């Protein structure tokens, strides 16, 4: 009995489970052992991605024979595809696969894309050998070779896009926010995560960018493929120690259920307090893993979705309610959280429009400039290193000051 009580006390309080679906034991799972593996994984995966992405516009102009405008447009479409696949990865993670499985599958796709790009570049694209620098043009390519190239880079987009929105959250899952000590670690993890991301891209923009600018494209791509493979291996090594949240179902349907339920009762008067609103107990008829969110007074029109009328089942009857007619307070509050985030998301649109140009027009501008200081040559892609160094500096300022 004493052993059972001790084990019960050491379980995490946020509802996470181990890889077997049992409640996670604090001392055996998560924390910094798993967190550091994920940080290194992120640094290596970012190095691999930017090893391709940061110089892709130059590869398109020097190796594939596109003009500047066409190459910049191609890179913008490719970058946009990465973000679109991020929506796919987030949806699969939340609805069906969970974050661990989603990260593992999409990282494997990422590795396949990088290996395919490295092979096609070495065998077909960078011909004659050493072409693709500023002086030596490459020969023409067949339709099959072009098709293999585009298949490779869009596999990279699919793999990285599906992986990126989940890995940061999965890393944060390793820290129990209900525990005061681990909750502090969780806040620190996000800063270190962004630091790892920028250090990985810094290596790509300087070292790998230098070799690729000299025409050693296959070497740069093979280095990216090796980095991504090592990242995947490290990620899998931590499998026994990871904490997991179980998938909670389709988030889009949960969002729509609240909107529809509230619209159906638009004439019903909203109560002043949230005490009379519908809420389930524990995990009963709930997809939220038993974790409740307290009622808030913002967006009160959505509270109608949780008002119990004669048409809905009651808690006393212990019948599962129709989610399109009545939703628990926690589900309503989830929708409110999304609505509160909308202004932040909208503010990032203009920033993203400018930031995207760093991988296309900025690099093309750098290639057109004088890139030597004395006898030292600066690769055009290294222009973005100033952005990375400033981010690293301000992460330190944020954490310390």
TrEMBL record:
<feature type="transmembrane region" description="Helical">
    <location>
        <begin position="189"/>
        <end position="211"/>
    </location>
</feature>
<feature type="transmembrane region" description="Helical">
    <location>
        <begin position="32"/>
        <end position="60"/>
    </location>
</feature>
<feature type="transmembrane region" description="Helical">
    <location>
        <begin position="378"/>
        <end position="398"/>
    </location>
</feature>
<feature type="transmembrane region" description="Helical">
    <location>
        <begin position="104"/>
        <end position="124"/>
    </location>
</feature>
<keyword id="KW-1133">Transmembrane helix</keyword>
<dbReference type="GO" id="GO:0022857">
    <property type="term" value="F:transmembrane transporter activity"/>
</dbReference>
<protein>
    <recommendedName>
        <fullName>Nitrate transporter 1.5</fullName>
    </recommendedName>
</protein>
<dbReference type="InterPro" id="IPR036259">
    <property type="entry name" value="MFS_trans_sf"/>
</dbReference>
<feature type="transmembrane region" description="Helical">
    <location>
        <begin position="341"/>
        <end position="363"/>
    </location>
</feature>
<keyword id="KW-0812">Transmembrane</keyword>
<dbReference type="GO" id="GO:0016020">
    <property type="term" value="C:membrane"/>
</dbReference>
<feature type="transmembrane region" description="Helical">
    <location>
        <begin position="80"/>
        <end position="97"/>
    </location>
</feature>
<keyword id="KW-0472">Membrane</keyword>
<comment type="similarity">
    <text>Belongs to the major facilitator superfamily. Proton-dependent oligopeptide transporter (POT/PTR) (TC 2.A.17) family.</text>
</comment>
<feature type="transmembrane region" description="Helical">
    <location>
        <begin position="144"/>
        <end position="163"/>
    </location>
</feature>
<dbReference type="InterPro" id="IPR000109">
    <property type="entry name" value="POT_fam"/>
</dbReference>
<feature type="transmembrane region" description="Helical">
    <location>
        <begin position="217"/>
        <end position="238"/>
    </location>
</feature>
<dbReference type="Pfam" id="PF00854">
    <property type="entry name" value="PTR2"/>
</dbReference>
<comment type="similarity">
    <text>Belongs to the major facilitator superfamily. Phosphate:H(+) symporter (TC 2.A.1.9) family.</text>
</comment>
